[in-house]
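Take a look at my tokenised protein here and describe the backbone shape.
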Amino acid sequence: MAELDNSLALALQSTVEKLTGEGAVAFEAPNPIQAAIGQVLMSIAQQKVNTVEATISPRSEDGTFKGLE
């Protein structure tokens, strides 16, 4: 079991190094302007989520929804 864990850890470490290092996909950290724009967009999205207004649909006597007359 320990040998399997060690092999899996080495494989994961190798994959992460290839993806984030000089391997297939070079990773570049976002600059401060990109980070600020991302925060503004997240803030706007959060405000939109919190401001959704719910409407209550009236029901008829038999329990079905009535039309908006």
Notes: The chain has a mean pLDDT of 79.
